[in-house]
């Protein structure tokens, strides 16, 4: 599992592409996998109380081990502060693995108009 602290501008679209490879660098086919991204105010909060709950079942290119997490402006329109998050995979074999965790800081945006 890796750790990474992320920053998101409040109200912006945020996207990251994930690539899955094994220890030897070979591509992993992620067909049938589900990717969960969850962010909470506290690690002890229930998933129902999460500020971000993203589930990805359709992947950009599953046979090449590629998927994308996209958060919409509505999903990033959060209180300006830091949250804990993780990204987990649910493999087709029902194995659950946390692959990334850390903090997400929601930062104030300068431009707030959209027209």
What do you see in this structure?
It is globular, with a radius of gyration of 15 Å. Strands 1, 2, 4, 5, 7 and 8 form a six-stranded mixed β-sheet that branches. A two-stranded antiparallel ribbon has the order 3-6. The protein is 3% helix and 44% strand. It has one helix and eight strands. It has one domain: Sandwich (Immunoglobulin-like), CATH 2.60.40. The protein is mainly beta and 115 residues long. A hairpin with a 5-residue loop joins strand 7 (82-90) and strand 8 (96-107). The relative contact order is 0.33. The chain has one helix at residues 73-76, and strands spanning 2-3, 6-9, 14-19, 34-40, 52-56, 66-71, 82-90, 96-107.
Short note summarizing the structure:
With 115 residues, the protein is mostly beta strands. 3% of the residues lie in helices and 44% in strands.
Mean pLDDT: 95
Whole-number radius of gyration?
15 Å
Uncertain stretches:
none
Q: Which architecture does the CATH hierarchy give at level 2?
A: Sandwich
Major sheet characteristics: 6 strands, mixed
> In angstroms, what separates the terminal alpha carbons?
41 Å
Number of helices: 1
Strand content: 35-45%
- Count of discrete structural domains: 1
* The CATH H-level homologous superfamily: Immunoglobulins
Just give the CATH class: Mainly Beta
Q: What is the fold-level CATH name, i.e. the topology?
A: Immunoglobulin-like
Topology order in helix (H) and strand (E) letters: EEEEEEHEE
Global structural class:
mainly beta
How many β-strand stretches? Answer: 8
Which term fits the overall shape?
globular
Give the helix level as a range of percent. Answer: under 10%
């Amino acid at each position: 599992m890796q750790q990474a602290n992320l920053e998101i501008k409040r109200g912006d679209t945020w996207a990251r592409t994930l690539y899955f490879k094994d220890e030897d660098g070979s591509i992993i086919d992620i067909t049938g996998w589900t990717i969960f991204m969850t962010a909470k105010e506290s690690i002890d909060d229930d998933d129902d109380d999460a500020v971000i709950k993203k589930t990805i079942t359709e992947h950009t290119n599953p046979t090449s081990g590629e998927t994308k997490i996209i958060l919409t402006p509505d999903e990033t329109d959060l209180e300006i502060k830091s949250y804990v998050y993780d990204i987990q995979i649910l493999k087709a074999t029902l194995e659950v693995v946390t692959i990334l965790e850390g903090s997400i800081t929601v930062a104030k945006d300068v431009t707030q108009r959209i027209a």
